[in-house]
Structure formats: structure tokens, C-alpha cells
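MODEL INPUT / OUTPUT PAIR
PAIR INDEX: 1
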Amino acid sequence: MSDTPLKLFNSLTRELEIFEPVHAGQARVYTCGPTVYNYQHIGNMRAYVFADTLGRTLSWKGFSLRHVINITDVGHLTSDADEGEDKMEKMAAREGKSAWDIARFYQEDFERDLARLNNRPVQHPRATDYVDAMIEWGKKIAPDHCYELDGGLYFDVSSVADYGRLARAVTDDGEGRIDTVEGKRNAADFAIWRKTPAGETRQMEWDSPWGRGAPGWHLECSVMGRNLLGFPLDIHTGGIDHREIHHPNEIAQNQAFCGCGSLSEAANSGAKIWMHNNFLVERSGKMSKSAGEFLRLQLLVDKGYHPLAYRMMCLQAHYRSELEFSWGGLAAALTRLKRMVMAVERLSDAVSAPTIDHAKFASSLAKFTDAMSDDLGTPVALTALEDALAVKKVDAGIKRAVIEHMDNVLGLDLFDLKRTDLRIRPKDTQMTEAEIEAELIRRKQARVAKDFAASDAIRESLAAKGVEVMDGDPLGWDWKLG
């Protein structure tokens, strides 16, 4: 536990604030989860690395953490606005499966990705389990805040104070990405409930006072956040894209339900602090779905990169900064992780000491504490970890305890990783690891015998099969898979 106050940037107030929980000793965090109609892009996964790092930091600070990441299995249309097809229904039709099967398959894949990134387990409630509660919510707010159109029940954003204060892209015409729906009172008004069009049948639809249909996307987070964690939440997180439409709409629903006033008091929004991670940027344009190579975690593994290299990449940038993805950058993050794993291997036989109090680590521990306490400054915290790893002539048990202390917050799993874990064979490589090692032994024998022609031939043969021999590799990895 660290006694240094934790400061977090509140997107609603635009200020750094000292975290003071609603309930002493507790931290209740809600994170907007994925729509489980497809695999998750690594850009989406950055949000969950950030959320996990926040949760780990709160635990490190001594708070009892309750963390919810919802699963959107109904209600999200093909855009973030009130238009388009339901993503779940569309994918179910495309794959010839039920929407429920689609949701189950992609939720399980998402949860596997979280585990591979060493995210700690949290609660994952599904939207479809809370439809009755959503209908009750709608019934409560409808008289004063909603109106009906042919398409369903709509929320009147002019009925609450300070609508859109959270967003940064508000124009005179309202939120830029919301298309016009005939009959809406305000451009930014949004659906609480969508009626199934006459003559159509959806796989996911329910009876309601406003007709048979399905809830709007924004409603689920308000309902699950309140039901599972209680209002006001301590912290609500999500990607920066949610800051412009989804979260302002969620806040408006919360204000309506609670009878809350102005957002000059942040708790009236339903959460004391709103936090948003910035985008992952991939500038080449070669990794979009339309380009045929979907940039998801499995693709990184298929190309020979351990998932924790991506976690390292995320931690190297502050969560509120854009993170540019490149294969070179990922390779550099993997190399940095390898260096840490090598250093930690020297402590594998040490028994962790009961204390981290040692003069040689005072500087690196202070640096780490200050960095993480200042709005999750992971880039500096990583350098503090490397400073601690570089300390020499010190009790191994104390050093191990210090590294464990830091790694528990950063989540790189350093004491369970091995070199062999980080040497992943790409999907298209034509050799097994045993075959590679056998060829390397043969090549070393040739070099000892000064048969450099044979040595070069083996090297070229390996290269043709996707294996790059790393002569003189300072990390001692011997070979990498190219």
C-alpha cells in the first residue's frame, strides 16, 4: 500500500483530482465493455489494459476493489448513433447462427484475450440479463424526460441540466455523429427503447410499454452500473470515443433517474470521476478489417509476439496519449520485456522478503510511487522498475520483493514468464522448435570446426523457413522467428 494520494484526471471536470472514495476503503469501478459480435481489435483491448492498470493501482493503494466490465449483447447499432442495424442481429444473419451463440462465442474469446494480457478477473454482466431492469428504468424516467415516436421511446436531452458537458465535440447542431430521426425534438435526442419495425422479427426482442423491441445501447450501462455498484460510482472508464456520445447519454439517463441537478457537482453524473483512454493509431492502413488482416491479439501471436509485449507497448505510453502501433514498436516492446525477464530469472531461487524497505531501492520506489500516483504514469513507472532491476550487491529476497511490488501494479507477470514463453513460433513457420534447436546445434558445431560454408548454408536454410539466427545477440536469445 502507498500513502501518497492517488491523483486521477476527471474528464468531466477537466482536472486532476485526488481520489476520495464514496465509501471509505472501497473503490467501485465500471468500465464500458465490448459489443460481442466480432473479435476485439487491439485498439479496443487498450481500454482494458488501462482499466486493469487502474484497478491494480487502486488495490495497491489499499482499496477494496469492485470492478465491472459489461458485455453488450444487445442494442448496439452499426454506428454509435441512433441509426443502422443491430450489430448482433447482423452478425447472426451473416454467420447463420443465433444471436445468443454469437454473443457467447465472442465473449469467451474476449475473456481469453483479457487473460492473455494478464488482466485480473472482474465481473462481466450481460446486457440481456438486465432487460427487465432497463424497462423499469424507462418507465420511471419516461413521464418527465422522454417521448414516443414510431420507432420507439426517445430521451429529450433538453430535459436535464448541462447535457453534453463531458463531450469535446459538441456543435450548435448537437453531437456530430448522430443522424436525424424524423420527429426528434433535438438532434442529440437518443433512443431508450427501439420498437421492432412492423412486419419484422428480431432474435432478441422483448415486450415493453412502448411496443415489442429492444433497449437502446446507452441504457444498459446506467442500469448495470447502478444495480451492481450503486450511485454514485467512484470511477467510470471507457475509450475516448465514448466521451462524445455514449457517456453523455448515459449521464443524462442517470440525472433523469436520480432527479439530479447540474453537473457542476460531478457525482450528479452517476460517477465521481470519468476516465478515458486515448486511441491506438495504426497509420499504415494495412491492418483494417477491409484490408483483410484484422489487427487483433491472435494476429500478434500468429506473427511471433507474446501478448504481454502488447501490454508492455500500452504501458510505455500514458493512457491519455495516443499510442501509435507499428510492428517495429511492438518488437522493441518485446525486447524490453525480454530484458526484464532475463533480469528477473536471476531472482527465481530467492524467497521474497517480508519488507521492501532498503536504502538501495529508496530512489526507485519513490520514483515508482510518484509516477503511478500521478494519474497512472506508467512510462516513468517502467523506468523505475528497470532502475530496481539494475541494483546490484543487495539481498536477493529484498530485491525480489521490490520487483514483485512493482509488477503487481504493472501486471507484466515477470516471475511467471520464461524466455521460452517469449519465443513464439509464427503460424506460418515451417519448423518445430525442436527442429530449429537441432539445426542450431549443427551450425555451432560447423562454426567450431571452422566450416563456415556449412554454417552459412544452415543459416540461409533457416532464414528461408522463417527463422532468423541472432549471432551475437546481447540478450542471449540465440534465434528469433521472423
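PAIR INDEX: 2
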Amino acid sequence: MRISTNSITQQGLEAMLRQQSELAKTQLQVSSGKRIQTPSDDPIGAVKMLDLQRQIGLSQQYQDNADVADSRLSTTDGTLKSAGDIMQRIRELAVQALNDTNSTESRRGIAEEINQLNETLVAL
């Protein structure tokens, strides 16, 4: 079989074009930082990548939910602490009001303070 010069040239040209295409693909991978540009580059890798993206999304949602729960718990904790402080002050005033040495005016003042504390407690 005789191989013509035209055939050899054509084969060489096709080989250079293939290499040039591979080089362009490699440059695109390097510049984008992604090995898989299209799912057809690596179907199994593309499926794994989609699964990892889904897992990252789920993890981010769990983290967001945890942050919201932590914030709500902090708010609730602060509210309960304030309510406990108010209840303690009401107890102190109640014990103070039981003292027989208090005048009527001082007992009215204590009652007024207890009413204000009660309103604050209801507002909490």
C-alpha cells in the first residue's frame, strides 16, 4: 500500500488539531479551577459533584437552623433571667411588707412597686 504525501500531511494536521483541542480544554480547566466543565467530561464525577453540592446545601441549612435556634434560645434565656430577677424582687418586697414596723404609706409604696413589677413580668 502506498502512502501519499497528502495523507501523511493530513494525519499530521489532524494530530496537531487534536493536541490543540486538548490544550484548549486543559487551559480552560486551569483557568476555571474546575476539572469537570460539562457532565460529558466525567459522568461519574459529575454525579458525585452534584451529590456533594446537595450535601453542602443541606449542611448549610442545618447550620442556619442551628444559628436561628441558638439566637432564639439566647433571647428566651435572657427573658427567663429577667423574669426570675423580677420574681425575686417581688418576694423581697412581700417579705418586707410583712414587717409590722412599716407604715401604711410605705406599704402602699411597696404595693405600687409590686404592681409595676407585675406589669413588667406580664410584658415579658
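PAIR 2 NOTE: The radius of gyration is 39 Å.
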